[in-house]
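Form P-L/3: holo structure prediction, ligand 2'-deoxycytidine-5'-monophosphate.
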Amino acid sequence: MIEMPVITMDGHAGSGKSTLAKELAKMYGFYQIDSGALYRTYTYFILKYLNENNENEIISEEIFQREEINNLIKNLKINIEFINNLQITMVNNENIEEYIRTPRISENIKAVADNINTRNMVNDTLRNLAGKYPIVADGRDMGTVVFYDADIKFFVTASAEERAKRRFLEFKEKHPHITIDEVVDQIVTRDKDDEKRPVGALKPAKDAIFIDTTGKNIKQVIENIIRYLQGSTSLRIKNFLENISKA
Ligand code: DC
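OUTPUT (holo model):
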């Protein structure tokens, strides 16, 4: 029996990978997996704990030496569900998507994403989905670590200026006081953190296909990606595309 295909989309913050993953979910029925949401989830619950205990809401490496923090993250029941093939992150049966995309979480995520125990828990959660669904997984180490045997791997890039502009437009709605300079600073810091991470660092897989989204609209990029899927030699991809063309 042919198993379900796995596509990976790694890249820097703002490169367009999650938009592309969502579009593939919408157009082709892949299941979009957003690995960053899981690191955001752990960060959110640690910050919540610090807040409730009147502690400084700053997450550093040392925090993982505390037993109650390790217990807190170990006991979170994180579940990935899907609505219209898009990931919904559930914790203890609650949809927490609306809480996890704040600048405060991004500022505190480094120590959480650097921590080996957190990474192992995230990776286990993600790998459990493989084989059950046709997956398009976006993140930093999807093609290099988590799904290193994926059927097709993309590394999505865009110029730093364009990525900062995209993030600025996204943030402006919810955080009207943010300036473009602040967003550029955040992007530069996050790029460095992501590339220098001791485990799961952002880098292209050896067999990754590079997709540059600078100056391109989503339709142009998706057409390019579809051409790669159609040209893939993977039986799982071929079979999947054949089935949807018959449907
Ligand atoms: O994709 P995102 O911006 O929501 O990810 C938030 C952070 O989570 C990112 O800066 C680093 C971390 N992350 C990671 O270390 N590995 C992944 N596969 C995905 C995200």
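COMMENT: Strands lie at 6-11, 31-34, 78-83, 86-91, 94-95, 135-139, 152-157, 209-212.
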